[in-house]
Amino acid sequence: MIAPDQSRHVSDALIHHVWTCDECGTAFSTLVRFDRWATPPCRAQAA
Questions:
Q1: H or E segment at 32?
Q2: Domain total for the chain?
Q3: What tens-digit pLDDT sequence spans the chain (47 residues)?
């Protein structure tokens, strides 16, 4: 499983992740932006 080394909540719709490559040790970061007004995915109803 791949997971970030650190995650930081920036705002209601933004998360900052810091990652490190296991092979070479290079660090990098990503920003994940969520659409605040998005409709949650549809979930199948149990019969």
A1: strand 27-33
A2: 1
A3: 678 999 999 988 899 999 999 899 999 999 999 887 777 666 665 55
What is the pTM (predicted TM-score) of this model?
A: 0.64
42 phi-psi bin (left φ>0, alpha ψ -120 to 50, beta other): beta
Question: Residue 27: inside a domain, yes or no?
Answer: yes
Which residue range is the domain that position 20 belongs to?
A: 1-35
Within a domain: residue 46? no
Q: CA–CA separation, 17 vs 31, rounded Å? A: 6
